[in-house]
Amino acid sequence: MFVAPVNTESLLAQAQAETLYLNLIEQINKDFNLANEGIDFPLSISPDELKIQLHEKVYRMIQYKFAEYLNLLYIIDVPENEIKQLDGSDLVILAEQVAFLILKREWQKVWFRNYYK
After folding, report:
1. Does 2 score more than 80 pLDDT?
2. What distance in Å separates the CA atoms of residue 117 and residue 63, rounded to the nearest whole number?
3. CA 28 – CA 41 distance, rounded (Å)
4. Cα–Cα distance measured from residue 103 to residue 117, given in angstroms and rounded to the nearest whole number
5. DSSP-H helix ranges across 1-117
6. Fewest Cβ atoms closer than 10 Å to its Cβ: which of 15, 38, 52, 79?
7. Would you tell me the crossing angle of helices 66-76 and 47-64 to the nearest 10 degrees?
8. pLDDT of 24-83, one tens digit each?
9. What is the pTM of this model?
């Protein structure tokens, strides 16, 4: 049964433990490219570096490409109610929280695809 991780670290640890980390990176790359936001995380990227780079990408999109950011959330299918619950007063924290929501949704896709194959 799928249990949603509570933070980025536990999500990435779970992905590695279930040997689905590479699938997670591939899914992130695929969905970002579908949204025309060229991102190409190498499969060799460490979980810490993935977290940092994804956070930076989301931060830049919120600041400079808001329409594309909204399109990305739509394509990835991040739940709108979860986005609305976030406090947008600090952009750095908001970007970190959104990056986690993106990772969580991407992990859910990868997990279900693997579990029900």
Report:
1. no
2. 39
3. 8
4. 21
5. 8-17, 21-34, 47-64, 66-76, 80-84, 91-115
6. 38
7. 130
8. 999 999 999 999 998 899 999 999 999 999 999 999 999 999 999 999 999 999 999 999
9. 0.94
CB neighbours of 32 closer than 8 A, spacing ≥ 6? 38, 39, 57, 72
CA 19 from centroid of its chain's CA atoms? 18
pLDDT in tens, 91-107: 999 999 999 999 999 99
Measured CA to CA, the distance from residue 22 to residue 36 in angstroms comes to 21
Q: Are 1 and 101 in contact (CB under 8 A)?
A: no
Residue 65 token pair: 């490409």
Write the CA distances from 109 to 28, 56, 59, 62, integer angstroms: 10, 23, 23, 24
Q: Are 32 and 72 in contact (CB under 8 A)?
A: yes
36 contacts 72 by C-beta, under 8 angstroms = no
